[in-house]
Design brief:
Helix 4 (about 55-75) packs across helix 5 (about 80-109). This protein has about 110 residues and is an all-alpha fold. The longest helix is centred in the C-terminal third of the chain and has 27 residues, at about 80-109. The radius of gyration is 18 Å and the shape is elongated. The N and C termini lie far apart (about 65 Å). The protein has helices at about 5-10, 20-35, 45-50, 55-75, 80-109. It is built from five helices and no strands. It has one domain (about 20-109). Keywords: Membrane, Transmembrane, Transmembrane helix.
Amino acid sequence: MSSLKQDADPAHEEDPRSRGTGSLALGVLAVVAFGCPFLPEALPPLVRFLPLYLVIPLGICAVVWGGPDLWRARRGERPAPVRARIGVLLGTLAVLGPLVWFFFYLGAG
């Protein structure tokens, strides 16, 4: 089957409701991982501090996965993907949050 027939085939079309879901999930996970040190002290340190190592990679992945959906929407090919936009926003906050905290820590110390 040629690629033109595959592109025109409605069975290969992506569900518009699922656009940006991966970006949203990764952004939420990154923000949740950033809040893990604030969990009760009764939990083991591994549970409280290990997710901090995943904040920046999860945030970067959220931005990278949501970016193509936003670019396609800007070109007018698809309607604006709200989930992708929120995922990119949360991913950006998850990347900038630790960096701002780190530079504040360096300046205060």
